Amino acid sequence: MGVFIYEFNNKTASDQDIQDLKELIYKHKIVVIKEQDLSPDQYCDFGYRLGDIEKYYQPMYHHPEREEIFVSSNVPENGQQIGVPKTGKFWHADYAFMPKPFAFSMVYPQAIPSKNRGTYFIDMFKAFRGLPDDLKSIATESSCYHSVRRFFKIRPDDVYRPISEILDEIEQVTPPSKHPTTFTHPVTGETVLYINDGFTYRIDNSEEEPLDTNILQKMLAISGQLDNRFEHPLIEHHEFELGDVRIWDNRSLVHCAHHAANSEPTISFRLTLYDSYPFYE
Ligand SMILES: [Fe+2]
């Protein structure tokens, strides 16, 4: 999956160029724009041309100057933690646990480790196509619940709080979201299997009765998300280089961050965007 784009400059790009870029994202699912050198303001300017930026619901992830930027970083600045270290190291689609997930995720690395850098992706349209017929028909007639609870990151202020209070707060602030197990992508028309190992925990039939969670586990296994060795044929590893701005279709793909085992400096800036279509019909 994916295409590289060279010699792109947001300052000189026409509205048609931006439209063409969006079409490339839908068509190829991943677009990497090479050799970018953007300040936080310039990065946000670029994001706003592609869609409406949604800032992350938790302020501890925000960039100190631009709250729209979600910062993943293990590098303190002036003794202060900026953003949150080692984010997204599990299979997920961004904001699947929210009622209205967004169309595009955009990542701009600022410091990268010497090895083990990149992101794993799975195309959940291909995963749907790979289901046997019985699971396909269950998938098209069911819904799933998604919650952030398993991967909610404890905040510095949570230290010494009872775990039950934190869990109650998670349920209150981000109650589970229910989405159809499959939906039609509003642009490509593909059927997307919208489940992920990190957030999806329950599958209901069309009568809203819970189904055996083994069904969900089988679908996740066929999609490749339960392969701890990352060797499943649907898993693609995409490395990044400094200067890359990677944008992907957050409807079709699930992803899993690949973090270095050591503590080499790693910083990336993420923007998340709505397009002009509903997430699904
Ligand atoms: Fe993510």
TrEMBL record:
Residues 13-259 form the TauD/TfdA-like domain. Keywords: Dioxygenase, Iron, Metal-binding, Oxidoreductase. GO terms for molecular function: dioxygenase activity; metal ion binding. Its cofactor is Fe(2+). It holds the Pfam family TauD. It comes from the Bacteria. PANTHER family: (3R)-3-[(CARBOXYMETHYL)AMINO]FATTY ACID OXYGENASE_DECARBOXYLASE, DIOXYGENASE RV0097-RELATED. Belongs to the TfdA dioxygenase family. This is TauD/TfdA family dioxygenase. It comes from Symploca sp. SIO1C4.
